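User: Fold this; tokens only.

Assistant: Input:
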Amino acid sequence: MSRVLLIDDEPGMAGLVSMCIEKAEVTRVGNLRQAVDAARERPPDLVLLDLALGSEDGLDILPDLRAEPVLSKVPIVAFTVHGSREREAMALGTDAFVSKPFKPAALRAAVAPFLEGIS
């Protein structure tokens, strides 16, 4: 089973993501420090990164995620309600982008290239 690290400050998002990509184990954390700790404990196959994290901006923490050896090569899919940030997110090194609110099919399509058995 694929492991997805969801970095999002909304607790309910983990359930929604889990419903959308049923064949993955989703672990939700709310900030950079928790993400690094969780990744070191159980390296993920994919990171879903919300760009609006309360006091942190997802794109601001992206270089720190990439600097972590356990996360340096892990695909990162960014998502946010601010669709205008897609170009910026992709330029800074995310592998895909999904606008919120998203339809389950849109999320599955974004993560499918990076996870086995997801379509």
